[in-house]
Design brief:
This protein has 244 residues and is α/β, with parallel strands linked by helices. The protein is built from twelve helices and eight strands.
């Protein structure tokens, strides 16, 4: 993996299949690691929120979860770079680990979402080993680790903990919980919980590949996502042009 500095955040440039292979390997190793899937909004939060910046800069992998970041990586010479989004990484890793001993834990989503997510993953990929699922109550960003949550997750002995709390909350959560959890790998996947559970629909593939997924999501949830996309996408472009 090579890193590309985008607005003072190192984002790994990699092929999608290589990222999947690396994550699968890490899930089988004793070292403790965590992975941030990083769209434009997360990158901009790393430039505004000290807790988010600390979490993302200390991650073992920061994927380009959005075509704008991939385009920047390619512009800087990493022509092989591909988008590694949370939902697609989740699907690929479940497919790869089906029929293996790899143990998965689902942490996040609204009430009922982890259960629907687990059901859909089992229906689609068959013999996947989901050892736990939990929808935690709302907590402010940066709330200290909860000993009960730590015990709950460690008791299930997962290899991969999938964290769906939304960014940058999930990134900060992984940074803070990482020393206390025994699972080799934590992966923050944001909206993957909603998409794969069926709670929300994902943009068509052509919109994802053309960098227009944000417009699809904005149309679905204009009140919640207007500031995220209209403000921060514009600010991202302006800052890139200013650096040039």
């Amino acid at each position: 993996m090579r890193k590309v500095d985008i607005l003072s955040v190192d984002v790994h440039a990699q092929r999608f299949d290589d990222a999947v292979e690396q994550l699968f390997a890490w899930s089988q190793q004793p070292q403790k690691r965590y992975v941030c899937t990083c769209p434009v909004y997360t990158l901009m939060m790393a430039n505004e929120m000290p807790l988010a910046r600390r979490a993302i800069l200390n991650a073992d992998m920061v994927t380009a979860d959005g075509m704008p970041l991939v385009w920047v990586q390619r512009r800087y010479g990493e022509t092989y770079a591909e988008r590694c989004s949370g939902p697609n990484l989740m699907r690929a890793l479940y497919q790869k680990t089906a029929g293996t001993p790899v143990r998965h834990y689902l942490w996040g989503g609204q009430v009922g979402v982890p259960e629907s997510l687990a059901h859909n993953l089992e229906q689609r990929y068959g013999d996947v080993n989901i050892v736990g699922k939990h929808s935690p109550p709302f907590e402010p960003v940066g709330t200290p680790p909860n000993p009960d949550y730590i015990d709950m997750i460690n008791a299930a002995e997962p290899d991969i903990v999938w964290v769906g709390l939304g960014s940058p909350k999930q990134d900060i959560w992984m940074h803070d919980y990482r020393p206390h959890l025994n699972a080799p790998l934590l992966i923050g996947v944001g909206a993957a919980f909603d998409f794969i559970s069926g709670r929300k629909t994902q943009a068509p593939q052509w919109m994802q590949e053309s960098g227009l997924e944000w417009s699809y999501r904005l149309f679905q949830e204009p009140r919640r996502l207007a500031v995220r996309y209209l403000k921060y996408n514009t600010l991202f472009v302006w800052r890139l042009l200013s650096e040039d």
